[in-house]
Design a protein that fits this description.
It is built from eleven helices and 16 strands. The protein has helices at about 5-20, 35-50, 95-110, 140-145, 160-170, 200-205, 240-260, 295-315, 335-350, 365, 395-410; strands at about 55-60, 65-70, 75-85, 120-125, 185-195, 205-215, 215-225, 230, 265, 270-275, 280, 285-295, 320-330, 330-335, 355-360, 375-380. Helix 1 (about 5-20) packs across helix 3. The longest helix has 22 residues, at about 295-315. The chain is elongated, with a radius of gyration of 23 Å. The structure holds glyoxylic acid and manganese (II) ion (2 copies). One manganese (II) ion binds near residues 83, 128 and 193.
Amino acid sequence: MIQMHKNIERMQSRLEFLYACGLQKDGSHTRMAFSPEDQKGRELFTSWCKEIGLKVRQDAAGNLIARLEGKCADLPAIIMGSHLDTVPDGGKFDGALGCVAGLEVCQALVEGGIQCEHPLEVIVFSDEEGFRFSAGMVGSSAFVGKEQGLNAKDLDFTEETREDVYRQAGIDFPKMLEAKRDPKTVHCCLELHVEQGGNLDQMGLAVGIVSSIAGVKRMQITIAGESNHAGSTRMDQRHDALVGAAKFIGKLPERVRALGNQYTVGTVGSIRVEPSAVNVIPGKCEFSLEIRDQNAKLMDKLAEALRIDLEQICREAGVSYCWQDQLSHEPMPMHESLKKLIQVEAEAHCIPFTQLPSGAFHDSLLLAEHFPTAMIFIASVAGKSHCKEEYSRPEDIGYGYKLLLDTVLAADKIKAFD
Ligand code: GLV
Ligand code: MN
Ligand code: MN
């Protein structure tokens, strides 16, 4: 580990600089996709790439692609990277780690005078988190040519349209799918990321090799009741939209546990009530519903059971509902021989690891449908993520980086992945 101190310190310092780009007036840190803060982070990252001689361009979907040429320019590229956008007041590591580690691999090779046979690319995928317009993995979807059903007129919370926000970020919305990458130009994809759960930390392990990434379904639910006077409307005369929503949300954990397994999760993460006044019965309640699991059939079954629950609850509460499917991605296993390659490297360098599934989604979920793709996790202390307490130890960053570097060098020697 001694000879890696410089690399670890450089990655940590870059993570701090990127975090600082997200500083808000209230002291929180957010690089929301396509915001000025996100843009600042991307510009900083671009400047680091250019300092070491990488060529940087932005594709039609806003993905930043930094390229280090290999000895054979026409060989397909080894892709590393992740995302730089964050959730509100997110941590320092989610996404950013994979970007700075990919850059560190390139920088270490440049400084060591080593040129791979294959070109190396570090890609910062745009809008991975997806909380602004409720989609996620926007850049990686376009990169694999997957139409996500995004709407140009979708509004964010400031009522800006998707197409306007994208235009300001240099993206022409109708042309986004031009970012589609020819699979013949990609050798493999490797994403280093923090686990965002507590498994590795509990097991005392630095590194995880991801077996598969959970699928995700997102729905938007609107319950319509009747606004009325909160003082003069008797309890038996009410059609309270929020009461209907609350009953459904209260039942959700029990339903998920009954139908699911240890990996099945269901979340209502955002909710809006109208008119939202202390003395008015809520006439409308809108909320997000998300379910995730490693099994696509189980996700379908759970979604249907939840819809039936909602229907029954709404009937009893005298309100109506609208269920809108917003996003659906099936679970995705990682590439077998690429996983094996990571394992061989971990064993060869005595890096303590295990295999584990990912409950969070990642750009690799999309990449894996089209390119040989694998992910390396490092431990998240106490399993904290999507919050400012997110933390990974420097030594684990070192292990993750080393494994990424060694896997890149091993992948460089392979002619083609099956
Ligand atoms: C992305 O981080 C997600 O899993 O929501
Ligand atoms: Mn992430
Ligand atoms: Mn995230």
